[in-house]
Amino acid sequence: MAVTAIFGARVKRREDPRLITGRGRFTDDIRLPGMCYAVFVRSPYAHARVSRVDVSKALKAGALAALTGSDLDGKVGPVPCAWVITNAEIRVPTYRPLAIDKVRYVGDPVAVVVGESPEKAHDYAKLVEVEYEPLPAVVDQEEAMRSGAPQLYDDVPNNVAFTWRLSGGDIEKAFSAADVVVEKRLVNHRLQPAAMETRGIVASYEASSDSITAWITSQNPHIHRFLISAMTGIPEHKIRVIATDVGGGFGSKIHVYGPEAVVTYLAKTLGRPVKWMETRRENFLATIHGRDHIQYVKLAAKKDGTILGLDVRSIANLGAYLSTAAPGIPTWLFGLMLSGPYKIPAIRCEVMGVLTNTAPVDAYRGAGRPEATYLLERMVDILARRLGMDPVEVRRRNFIEKEAFPYQSVTGILYDSGDYLAAFNKALEKIGYAEFRRRQEEARRQGKLLGIGISSYVEICGLGPSRAVRATGFGLGLWESATVRVHPSGKVTVYTGGNPHGQGEETTFAQIAADQLGVPLEDVEVIHGDTGMIPFGMGTYGSRTTPVAGGAIALACKRVIEKGRKIAAHLLEVSEQDVEFRAGVYSVRGLPEKSVKIQQVALASYAAGSRELPEGTEPGLESTAFYDPENFTFPFGTHVCTVEVDPETGMVKILRYVAVDDCGVRINPTIVEGQIHGGVVQGIAQALWEQAIYDNNGNLLTATLSDYAVPTAADVPEIETDETITPSPHNPLGVKGVGETGTIAATPAVVNAVIDALSHLGIEHIDMPLTPARVWRVLRETRKGESAK
Amino acid sequence: MLTLDQFDYFAPSTLRGALTLAARYRGRAVFLAGGQSLLPLMKLGLLSPKTVIDLNRVRGLEYIRGDGRWVRIGAMTRHNSIATSRLLAGKVPLMVEAASLIGDPQVRNMGTIGGSLAHADPAGDWGSVLIALRGVIQAASLGGRRLIEADKFFVDAFKTRLRPGELITEVRVPVPPKGSGGAYLKLVRREGDFATAAVGVQLTLDKTGAVSRAGIGLTSLGPVNIRAVRAEEALVGRVPTDGVIEEAADAAASDARPVTDPLRGDEDYKRAMASVLTRRAIKLAVSRARGGA
Amino acid sequence: MAQKGLVEITVKVNGRVVKRAVEPRKLLVNFIRDDLGLTGTHWGCDTGNCGACTVILNGRSVKSCNVLAVQADGAELLTIEGLASDGKLHPIQEAFWENHALQCGFCTPGFIMQTFWLLKQNPNPSPEEVRKMLAGNLCRCTGYQNIVKAVLDAAAKMRR
Question: Between residues 415 and 434 of chain A, which touch chain B (CB distance below 8 Å)?
Fold first, then answer.
């Protein structure tokens, strides 16, 4: 698939020069003449009736605007849910941009004020008076489902927004044929995405064209445009959304939030630019959280370790409102991958989505797949323990063989390509598995706790084929767009609907186009993020940008080359069939010296005279492609981690971390490795440190970066990366996604390692995060149990 | 956007000027030293003072001096200055060790020992270190100066014996004699975090190898930095064998008055860590006193 | 001296003297970004943990969100914009670029300024020392691995 050395090369990123000199343009860097500032007033209660919101004092003191939920009623509509999942009975409660009668989580916004300066806006916000009648709150999803629990909505009984089901194979047969059934309750706890840049918007109204320009910290500017238009009534084509430099997203900047529509509305009514940037505290209270599943799992197996069936009942905490993509994350993106890299003949899955008085939950790096992989990898290890088998052996026995691809999972999904055993063996060799087991034995004799944990994964990304996606209830197809424009001088601009915010596609997409078209890398420019410049794009999330947006670019390049062939044939005075194209040159088959460069063809296409352009061919050399992939992509791999646990303090130290990943063809290996490093550290963080914690009254105890334990450089290990390369057969470039694989794989690798370190003491499972206090308590209880014998 | 509430601001350039303001505003103003604790509280809206008195321009409060049997440290001395002080590395290495464990490098460049002590966070490190060293805190007001022993300085969480109108001006530490060793061990969730639990030990061995003097301070193990009196008593006059050290460690667990922290560990865990860290810190201090590392 | 209302401050920023009147409550990071228009210094939290706002104040790396602008009166300030000279990148900037030590780039100026200071303290740090000296800067994208590599690379470049 690579034509030149550019494709696959470790090219330095062209995003970097502006970012390393402080010349990046992030949303808070935008300054416009006449710009004023918005501040939101938010509920301090997790659950309360709102009897009065009085903004009069703020207005009297000089606020340029002060609005309540009632003021917006009929003017700015509710936040839509864009994934009304199928296979479920689902109720979508009304999600107002500013709450009116009731607030449902701490941080729920009830009013907004605008001031000339950030300081004035801050002062005006303090003058808003709100009367609340607190109600009992519920934060845990299982408690919220019980009768007698506080009800968030009159029309959502027992706070259950949906019950979703998926199954394949004969689950009853599987369990009746089983030699062993492993049952476990697993908790995949709540996380805060914590991108380093908080969210915000600068909205500006241009009276002369009656249009809005909004700079938003968005992973998908067109989706923001589409939904803000729906909420405000401002026509879609009169809104331009620009995602300039975005400081990380991890899923939290996909969704449309009330404040973004409110600020857009304010800009229009005030007729001047309005800026809003959330504080970190607001980010932690009101930007979506991730994960938060309680899973009841039953695994049926034969005594030789062969898995016969998996039965999962998951209870997902959705928070107080259904966020943009929320219903699909714990259901489709979770359930479809419950086979993992294993041949599981029967799977049954039921998911209940429950509303509670907490921040809304939605996609966070991995979005459903970490929850599936964690479940599988923990259950496989527990099964191995119960059967007295090596966890390596159980995995080997159950892996889908490489001859079986494309593989139809009983969940209904078709894995495109894979060779799980190869990556697995490579990882085990790299970590020195057998040698470590010897060290572990020796260490145990000295009372030291060493452990090794494996995580074998396959995940579903490169979202996604529109027909399949729409069949799950997602609002739009997940195709992607690209325009490839060759200018008269032969320089190229690529307009992409993908929206990188750190992933490096300004560089890798230039590599794709340069390689396909055979032009120098520096002649290609990549434009993204501005709805005024690019065709409609679905944005960057779900590790889709390289396969799908990249695929669109490849498709557009192909069409450009084909059109160029017509023109080249005309210039060379031969027929089209006799013209070959390679590395930027059109030549006559058999007569390589009779050739013309693509730059000459480009000029000819614009010159368009009778010598340059054949009859019936339009001038210009560009193409727009909307690429709808025929399938998702399925990257895979095995990660292995070794740890030492301090038996006295419960502290876990990671000794080594090995990641062997296969994301198909790699456009820029350095960028791929960077994605894996970052993803792995977030996965380790869930296993050991990070947890979003609410008290029983719905107060978020981890609302600062001092409390929420994001790791530092001093806490994390070096990650040893390696790869296998199994191209995706359906993708034009053979690439799969890789942005989330590190996070998906790492969490169970670390947890498995810690449990392995303690397994000889009879410990089978500990819920995450494996904080020192938690590990210590389990060890102490185990010791007490021992001495009681 | 990070915006604070409005306040009146003073930046006196002399100690007398600062004390005059302290007297005039008696308890109604806050003092800005390093700002690493104060400013976050103000940014979160947890503290909204009407008046801020900036001590950073007051001349003569940043110094580290050897003065015979004592080392004297100005209240505005930054943690990093202590961490890199050659004088302290030679005379009171426990302070160098502890300083380098406070917060992170940028915090250490601004945070001050006086500010930290006056803030009296139970997770503050300096109080425990001074308790272990038997240090004293000098407080000044327009009415004069007085010395307060470190283990008497803290009354409750975020409350000290400083009277309205008083400022810490200096910290004094007796230079440990030959045959002394100290250690500060801090358990954290992740680097830069407040201590889950921390223990500071400073002891001296006499010619027979017995502990002639022992100071033990506990961090994040009670409402204040605690002097582990029983643990000290378990050591003094005895040769620190493993058994003796174990007794001292057990005693430290009963000296501790931990409170469950939903983020870092419950009461049981903290009490157990009091014991574990005390044992480890004593062992390290003893080995250093004997001339080891 | 009593200060009500605005305070006049004079600061030498990246070699240039500027005079402004500010409210005492204005944080240094906001002064740098809003009053001086130097938006390369970022902010990412409200408790002084993330380090995105790190600048060099009188030769020391500090978190500018935890310093009042008025405290910088009479001081020398170096921000990310002042690092490259005459269009030529500082070796630290080059090293970050060459080692893929940034992804979204939001935390990057803070890391580069902290690196500038840490290499002055210790021109030949070990990887562990680098990690500890960067503990005041958070990154969510890179997992830190390539940042450490870049710092060591910059150190080697600067020692030559």
Answer: none
SS3 content of chain B, % helix, strand, coil (to 5): 35, 25, 40
Is residue A697 within 8 angstroms of chain B, CB to CB?
Answer: no
Beta-carbon separation of C135 and A279 below 8 A = no
Tens digits of residue pLDDT in A421-445: 999 999 999 999 999 999 999 999 9
Query: What per-residue confidence (pLDDT) applies to C4?
Result: 60
Q: Would you place residue A733 in the very low, low, confident or very high pLDDT band (cuts 50, 70, 90)? A: very high
Q: Report pLDDT digits (tens) over A355-396.
A: 999 999 999 999 999 999 999 999 999 999 999 999 999 999
Same-domain pairing of A676 and A556: no
User: ∠A300-A684-C142 over CA atoms, to 5°?
Assistant: 135
Tell me the C-alpha distance between B49 and B27, whole Å: 10
Which one-letter amino acid corresponds to residue A8? Answer: G
A646 shares a domain with A622: no
Q: Is the dihedral of CA A278, A280, A283, A286 positive or negative?
A: negative
Question: Which chain B residue's Cα is nearest to C61?
Answer: B106
Q: Cβ contact (<8 Å) for A678 and C93?
A: no
Distance from CA of A492 to the nearest CA of B (A): 39
Q: Is C68 on the interface with B (CB under 8 A)?
A: yes
Average pLDDT value over all residues in chain A: 97
- Give the residue from B48, B54, B57, B58 showing the smallest Cα distance to B7: B48
Residue-range definition of the domain harbouring residue A486: 16-21+480-627
ipTM of the complex: 0.98
pTM, entire model: 0.97
- Select from A606, A627, A648 the last residue of a domain: A627
DSSP state for residue C66 in the 8-state scheme: G
Task: Give A365→chain B minimum CA distance, Å.
Answer: 22
Return the number of CB contacts < 8 Å for A and B.
72
- Best probe of the B interface among C7, C8, C22, C46, by most B CBs < 10 A, is C46
Q: Cite the DSSP H helix spans in A538-581.
A: 550-572
Express each pLDDT in B110-119 by its tens digit.
999 999 999 9
Q: State the CATH number of the domain containing residue A541.
A: 3.30.365.10
Quick check: C5 pLDDT over 90? no
Predicted pLDDT of residue C1: 44
Closest CA to C57 of C47, C49, C65: C65
Whether A653 is in a domain gets the answer: yes
Which chains lie within 8 Å of chain A at 3 or more CB pairs, if any?
B, C
**Record: contact A712-C93, CB cut-off 8 A:** no
Contacts of B190 in chain A (CB under 8 A): 689, 709-712, 714-715
Q: What is the DSSP letter of A367?
A: T
Does residue B240 surpass a pLDDT of 50? yes
Beta carbons of A188 and A369 less than 8 angstroms apart:
no
Which chains have 3+ CB pairs within 8 A of B? A, C
The CB density around residue B164, as the number of other CB atoms within 10 Å, is 12
Q: Measure CB to CB from residue B189 to each of A126, A709, A714 and give the nearest one.
A: A709
**Chain A: residue whose CA lies nearest to C92:** A20
- The separation between CA A521 and the C-alpha centre of its own chain, rounded to angstroms, equals 29
Put simply, the answer to whether C48 touches B32 (Cβ < 8 Å) is no
CA–CA distance, A504 with A494 (Å, rounded to integer): 14
Answer yes or no: are the C-beta atoms of A329 and A337 closer than 8 Å.
Answer: no
Q: Please identify, among A627, A656, A677, the residue that sits at the C-terminal boundary of a domain.
A: A627
Dump pLDDT digits (tens) for B199-211. Answer: 999 999 999 999 9
Distance from CA of C76 to the nearest CA of A (A): 19
| Residue-range domains of chain C with CATH | 7-81 (3.10.20.30), 91-159 (1.10.150.120)
Domains and CATH numbers, chain B: 8-54 (3.30.43.10), 64-174 (3.30.465.10), 180-289 (3.30.390.50)
Q: Are B249 and B275 in contact (CB under 8 A)?
A: yes
